Amino acid sequence: MTRHRPTGARPSGSASKRSGRWPPWVWALLAVAVEACPVHAAPPERVVSINVCADQLVQLLARSEDVQALSFLAGDPQMSVLAGQSSAYRLIRGQAEEVLPLDADLVIAGVYSTPATVALLRRLGQRIEILPMTSDLDGIRANVRRVAGWLRREASGRALIADLDARLLAVRPATHGHEPTALVYYVNSLAAGRGTLADAVLRAAGYRNLAAEEGIDGEGYLPLERLVANPPDLIVLGNGLQHYRSITADNLRHPALRRVMQRVPSVVLPQALLMCDTPLVVEAVELLAAARSRIGRSTVSSTLP
Q: Can you tell me the distance from the alpha carbon of 191 to that of 235, in angstroms, rounded to the nearest whole number?
């Protein structure tokens, strides 16, 4: 009786051995795939942040019980929008002797965070992630997804982005009609120009950035004389004068600026709102969008203290 090998059965002998060997290119692809796969499968339960912008994303996304420490700047209201909530956390300066005893399974740093600490943690094989800097809303969304992925809190990240987008949509101006100009003006006659986070916030609130139209890229010098000669429809101050006691704020105390602000609407935008590229910038967008209703009035009282 003749026995027939079932279709699809493994051939015997040398043919079987040959079929069991994969060509080198298959092994190469497998090696690349393994290297690309995340090795941190379990959600981190001992998280440390040593960057003020990472602090805020951690506060927004992580479970509080999983956070071992934030940077000391998390408690500074001039630097962090969430400073009022920082008392629930240990605050550190990011030095190695502070970070190492915490035995973190995830340390998040910024591009410029305490480089000696970052280098040491890497040499010791600890997990450290670097949060990139961004200056636009798409970059903010990307950073939310990035941190949410590190924390294994992807659903929270999606919810945070959805809330950001809903609030931006709610204040988005009509596509037709006049687009007013605005200028974010700081101490020492610095203005926020093209490519800054302030520029992205102004555009989201429905303004043209006068500093960008004046040819300023990044934060650049805008003489008070130019502002007086060509004022915007809205003057946005980077902080009230009560925060500055030095002569660098003399441009904000100048009588010429006060005279302009008697006829041009102005608003004080807390420095912390534009300090970090997080979804919290939507609060700045909402504040500026609300100020659009004041544009066009013949006389507006200055908001300078």
A: 11
